[in-house]
Write a structure and sequence with these properties.
By secondary structure, the protein is an alpha+beta fold. It has 6 helices and 8 strands; from the N terminus they run ββααααβββαβαββ.
């Protein structure tokens, strides 16, 4: 099991029974001031999802599945942040409707609560997510998208070793440099 300490937080994969915390953290993320730049859904949309939606979401990203969500969990069970890794298969369509050319990992749902930004939580979450992605057989690249106006996120991603590869509308696709 992944276990990195990050400001007294353990970095670990989501478990199926974590669905209430998955829901709470997602709703908190969607209330963040930069949420309209960072996420494809709104708080109002997400809060209407039934519990079965959240149970399925947690199950799809729990251990043993194709995708994985990592969280920074505190000693009292509180979550400081999260990142999800989606494995995209060749021949499928991505969220843009584009054909995926190679097996790749796509980092999504990046969120760290305000009081934990600028510390070790985000770097440790990324270390776990990227490490897990690179360990998947045949994954040839790790990418993410960031809004052109989300300078703080862009700065973190650059520091984490990502570089811009192209512009898609008002988003930058960024790819992890092979040496990072």
């Amino acid at each position: 099991m992944m276990s990195g300490m990050s400001d007294a937080y353990v970095i670990r994969p989501v478990r199926v029974d974590d669905w209430p915390a998955v829901k709470e953290l997602r709703l908190a993320a969607l209330q963040d001031p930069v949420a309209p730049l960072a996420f494809l859904e709104t708080y109002e949309q997400a809060e209407t999802h039934p519990d079965d939606f959240w149970k399925d979401r947690a199950a799809r990203c729990a251990e043993g599945g194709l995708n994985r969500q990592f969280v920074a969990e505190g000693p009292r069970g509180d979550w400081a942040g999260s990142v999800t890794v989606l494995v995209e298969e060749p021949g499928t369509e991505d969220f843009l409707g584009e054909r995926v050319a190679q097996r790749q990992a796509h980092l999504v749902g990046v969120f760290v609560r305000e009081g934990y930004r600028g510390g070790r939580v985000a770097p440790e979450l990324f270390r776990a997510a990227v490490g897990w992605a690179r360990a998947r057989e045949g994954v040839s690249r790790v990418r993410l998208f960031v809004h052109e106006d989300n300078a703080r996120a862009q700065g973190f991603y650059r520091k984490a070793g990502f570089r811009r590869t192209r512009v898609v509308g008002d988003e930058y696709e960024m790819e992890l440099r092979p040496s990072a």
